[in-house]
C-alpha cells in the first residue's frame, strides 16, 4: 500500500514528532539542544510557522505548531533536519542518517486537544523518569508557559491567552493544568494520531478538514477522497 502524504492545512495546529534512527540519541550535550532550538526559531520565522510548544527528548522531539501556508511546516522541517544532521555529524565525528525516516505529524482540533497536547509534551520528561516535575526540565517550552523564562521560539496560541486576563493568571492556570495531568486514553490518542497521520478531533471537525484537502484525514473513511 502506498504511503499517505503528510496532512498539512494552513491555519490549523499540527502535532509533529521527529525520532532518532533506531531510537539513538539525537542530542549529546546542551550545545546540541541549543543548536536545534536556534534552527527551529530561524526556520519557523522564515516559513511563517507559529510554534506554540515543544519538547526535546534525548532521542526524539515534539512540536505543536500552526503554519500560515501549506508548505510552511514541510519546508521548516526539511531545512532544520538537513542542517542539524550536518552539524551534528561534524561535531561528533559521525556519518550517515540521524532520523528515523521522515517526521510524523497530524492536525488536532484546537478546542478539544491543543492545551492537552501542550501538557502532554511538557510531561514527556516526567513520564520518562528524567525529572520529578515538568518545570525541572530545561529543554521544553514549559518554563516559558509558566513565566519562568522568555523563549523567543514560542508563539502562544489564542487558547493559551484565554486562560487568564493577565500573564500571571495565564501562567498559573497553565501550571495547574499540567500538574493535573492528562489521562492515558488522551495520551494514546495524541501519540497515535501523530504517528499514523490521522486527524484528531470530533466528527464535525474531521469532516470540515476533509472538505479542505483531497488527502484522506481519518481511518474510518473509505473510498476516494472528497474533491475540494
From TrEMBL:
User: MF terms per GO, please?
Assistant: DNA binding; transposase activity
Pfam families annotated for this entry? Y1_Tnp
Record-linked SUPFAM superfamilies: Transposase IS200-like
The record's Gene Ontology biological-process terms are: DNA transposition
SMART domains given in the database record: Y1_Tnp
Stored InterPro entries? Transposase_17, Transposase_17_sf
Which positions fall inside the Transposase IS200-like domain? 9-124
Q: Which domain of life is it from?
A: Bacteria
- What NCBIfam families does the database record attribute to this sequence? REP_Tyr_transpos (NF047646)
Annotated protein name in UniProt = Transposase
Taxonomic lineage is: Bacteria, Pseudomonadati, Pseudomonadota, Betaproteobacteria, Burkholderiales
